[in-house]
Amino acid sequence: MDDYSGWKYEVGGLYVRWTTSWNESLLPNVEYSGDMQRFNGWSLVEESSIGDKFYRVVQMPTEFTISGLKYCLESGTTNNLILVGFEGELSDLVIPDRVEYGGHIYYVKEVGDRVFYNCNSLKSVDFGSVIRIGDYAFSGCTGLSEIAIPSTVKEVGDHAFYKCINLKEIVIGNDVAVLKTSSFSRCDGLERLVLPDSLENVEKNVFYGLTFLSPEGDKLSQTADNLRGATFEGTGKTLYKQVPVYTITWTNDDGFVIDETAVFHGSVPQHDDSVKASDAQYTYAFVGWSPEIVPATGDATYAAVFSKTLNSYTVTWVVDDFVSERIYQYGKVPSYSSVPSKAPSEGVTYEFERWEPSLSAVTGDATYTAVFREVAMLGC
C-alpha cells in the first residue's frame, strides 16, 4: 500500500497532503469511520503556490436523530433513510418526506423493523411517502384506532400491524402491491377495510382472525383476487364485502347538470328522457344518451343528445279586404304570390306602394298589410 504519511487529523475531517508529481486519479480509496461517519470521497481544500494540494475526507453520517426520530442511512445509498427509532413517549407520529442534516437533504423511504413494537402510547400515524413498512414495525400498538397507508407504499412487512387489536379502520392506498405474512393478523376489532386495485400478492394469514363474506353471505378466502379493490365492513371479526356505489351524472348537451343518481357496481344506469325547450329557430327531440350507457364500473357522466327541426311560422297577408296565410320556415324572407291590388272606387285607382311592416326574415308568426297610394283616374 502507498505511504500516505502526509495525512493529518484536523477539526471537521481528515486531510492528506498531495504533491504535484502524483496524479489526482490515484487519490486513495480509504475506509474511514468514526462518530457514525462514512467515507464519501475527497474534497480539495487548498492549493499552494508551488502546486501542493490538500484534500479533505468528505464524510457522511450513517445515523442521526432529528425531532425525536432516529434515522440510519439505507445501505448502498447516499440520501435515503430508514426510520429506526424514537426518543421519549410518542403519541402522534408524523413521518417527514425528507429531513435536512449537516447541510444535506435526505429522504425517508422506510419504517424499519420493530421500530414501534408495542408502542401503546401511539395514537395516530402519518406515513409520509415511505415505500416500505418493516416487519413488526407497529406490532402491538394497541392505541391505534385507524390507519391510512399511502399509495407510495409498495410493501407492508411481516406482522407489521400484528395484534393492533383496537384498529377500527384500515385504508390501504393504490399502488400497494404486497401484504406480507400476518401483516394485519389478530386485528380483531376491525370494522372497515379498504383495499387497493393494485394488490398483487396477499401472503398467508394476513388477516388471521377475521372472516370475510360476500354480499350474499358466502365465505371468501383471503386471496388477492377476492380482496383486490374491495371494501369490507362489519363487526365481531366478520366483515361483509360491500358492493360499490357510483355516482352517475346526467347533463344536457350544453353541460348543464340535470340530475345525479347512485347505482351499484355492475348495474345499468337509467334515467328518464331529457327535455330541451324549443327556441325561435328549432324544436328539439330527445334521441338518447352519449356515450352509450353501459353497466357501472365507476363514476360516469352521460350527456343528452337531441335532434332538431327547423321551426315554421305563419305569415298573414292582408290586401285590402282579402286575407291569406302562408307557412314559411325560420330564416326565410316571405314573398307575396303576386303584386297586390285594390279595386278602384269613385274615380280613384290604387297602386301598391309597400308592405307594412317591411318584409324581413321569418323569426315568428307575422302579419303584413299592403299599403296603397291613390291615383286619379284620367278624365276625372
Number of strands: 30
Under the CATH scheme, the architecture of the largest domain is Alpha-Beta Horseshoe
What is the residue-mean pLDDT, rounded to a whole number?
A: 86
* N-end to C-end Cα span: 144 Å
CATH superfamily of the largest domain: Ribonuclease Inhibitor
Give the CATH level 1 class of the largest domain: Alpha Beta
Q: Can you walk me through this structure?
A:
The structure is a single chain. The chain has one helix and 30 strands. The strands form six sheets. Strands 5, 6, 7, 9, 10, 12, 14, 16 and 18 form a nine-stranded mixed β-sheet that branches. A seven-stranded mixed β-sheet has the order 13-15-17-21-22-19-20, with no helix packed on it. Mean pLDDT is 86; it is low at 1-39. The protein is 1% helix and 44% strand. The termini are far apart. The chain folds into four domains: 8-61, no CATH class; 63-241, Alpha-Beta Horseshoe (Leucine-rich repeat, LRR (right-handed beta-alpha superhelix)), CATH 3.80.10.10; 245-310, Immunoglobulin-like; 313-376, Listeria-Bacteroides repeat domain (Immunoglobulin-like), CATH 2.60.40.4270. The chain is mainly β.
